[in-house]
Amino acid sequence: MNIANPCIEEVEKYLAIWYSSENDMAKERALDKLFLTTYRLNKCVDDVLVKVSVLNDIYDTNLFNTFAMASHIVDLDIDDRLQKADDMLVMDIAKMTLPNGKVINFYSFATKYCSRHRPKDFPIYDSYVDRVLRYFRDVDAFCKFNSRDLKDYPIFKLVISKFRDFYGLEEYDFKKLDMYLWRLGKEKFSKMGAQNSVYVKNQRG
Length: 205
Known about the structure:
Blueprint: H1 8-19, H2 22-38, H3 45-59, H4 66-76, H5 79-83, H6 88-94, E1 95-97, E2 103-105, H7 107-117, H8 127-140, H9 153-166, H10 174-195
Antiparallel strand pairs: 1-2
Helix pairs in contact: 1-10, 2-3, 3-4, 6-7, 8-10
């Protein structure tokens, strides 16, 4: 597969596609209003349940027990940690114990939940971003990491930072990098995703 090397022109190209999509921008505005204005805090399970449910629906994160996740988030008392951009918060949200005692790792959802509160501090992980990072690791060796390392959030965030520095994209924050990486990954790897369920589980609507 031949993909153009990351550069300012490439990032701007994919950002322009994103901004020109009425569907994508409407979802962005709705989520920003919900997370950044209407329900900024995470103290009340009713408020958190609304955010979890809407995020699950728009991003199609396959979170099958939204109330359990909302209760889990409230119990973690996350607001101070969000403000401090605590990377380990993602890992704590991700590992949720279900009512039957089973522990499930909702890693991609957790990155999205934190990112919606502080988009410039928490980059989003999903399968498309994962594929793009691994592709350029193999092509340009911008950073040494094992594929499983991307499921360790502090390492994932470091990989994103090294990607930005290696390709001279320092002017872009994590939010804009995510928009570029996801749109690029969707364009280049969506057909592969249709053949492997791991790549269709984390669609963003």
